[in-house]
Design goal:
The complex is a heterodimer. Helix content of chain A is 70%, strand content 0%. The two termini of chain A are 22 Å apart. Chain A is an all-alpha fold. Chain B is mostly helical. Chain B has seven helices and no strands. In chain B, helix 1 packs across helix 7, helix 2 crosses helix 6 and helix 6 packs antiparallel against helix 7. The chains are: A mainly alpha, B mainly alpha. The interface between A and B is medium-sized, with 22 and 21 residues.
Chain lengths: 147, 143
């Protein structure tokens, strides 16, 4: 089981309570599709992904980014059992969506970059440590049920 | 995944904009590397203090960023231009190349923090590719 200090819990909760899900979700998913273009393979039905500009204006991508970010709420509410919280979602990504789990890490890295831009100097070393620990637990849980 | 001509220009322009803050960014990036990925401290066991924000870490972060800036000037031939640095890393330092990716990520985070408007997705992909090419050039002599 993952151990969380009070400080880490406070940091993670604070980030989420100040989060603009639409803005950050859209920016993170767009950034992932632009920086790691092979991730576009999972978005065949999402309309025009021709270049960075069209990706950034694509409303379907924006909506999906928001959806993904809200998916992190589950981990926030169940920080002491993220592994089991995501068991079903992990199976979904494995069996139905067929997403290479390495993509979770790529998206997590983009989310970190976007949050860092938003928070600026407030994204302290301590904040980054806690945030990346949280995301790595989520990423691990999402990949866990692959078979 | 080599850089297009446009991406090389993007990299040079962004690093130009960044130059007044490059020391800060280098120092912060290395601090964050040892904080977020504590296993990287294993390369700094010869320092009295390898904790994030310590003097040796900040100083070395600045040194590394200096090397990255030098690599920008050699962007058209990283393998040739970084030959001696590659030999240093291969035969003396022997840093596992996986760590280049980790440091690159920390650099990108710091760039994003300091230049939120300028570090667009297009700049991000160009800089990420450049840092990846740099890492490959550094690992060229490893085996």
């Amino acid at each position: 089981m993952v151990e969380w200090t009070d400080s880490e819990r406070a940091i993670i909760n604070s980030i989420f309570s100040n989060l603009d899900y639409e803005e950050i979700g859209r920016k993170s998913l767009c950034r992932c599709l632009i920086v790691y273009p092979w991730t576009q393979r999972y978005f065949g039905g999402f309309g025009n992904l021709y270049n960075a500009e069209t990706i950034l204006c694509n409303p379907l991508i924006a909506a999906h980014g928001t959806k993904i970010l809200h998916g992190l709420d589950r981990a926030l509410k169940n920080m002491d059992d993220i592994k089991n919280t995501y068991a079903e979602l992990s199976l979904l990504h494995s069996d139905k969506l067929h997403v290479d789990p390495d993509n979770f890490r790529l998206l997590a890295d983009c989310l970190t970059v976007v949050i860092a831009a938003k928070m600026g100097a407030a994204f302290t070393v301590e904040t980054q440590v806690a945030w990346q620990k949280f995301l790595s637990v989520v990423v691990s849980a999402l990949g866990r049920q692959y078979h | 995944m080599s850089l297009s001509a446009k991406q090389k220009t993007t990299v040079k322009e962004f690093f130009g904009k960044m130059s007044t803050r490059s020391d800060d960014i280098g120092a912060e990036a290395l601090s964050r590397l040892v904080a977020v990925y504590p296993q990287t401290k294993s390369y700094f066991s010869h320092w009295k203090d390898a904790s994030p924000g310590s003097a040796p870490v900040r100083k070395h972060g600045i040194t590394i960023m200096g090397g990255v800036y030098d690599a920008v000037t050699k962007i058209d031939d990283l393998k040739g231009g970084l030959l001696s640095l590659s030999e240093l890393h291969a035969f003396m330092l022997r840093v596992d190349p996986v760590n280049f990716k980790l440091l690159a990520h920390c650099m990108l985070v710091c760039m994003s923090m300091v230049f939120p408007e300028e570090f667009t997705p297009q700049v991000h992909v160009a800089v990420d590719k450049f840092l990846a090419q740099l890492a490959l050039a550094l690992a060229e002599k490893y085996r």
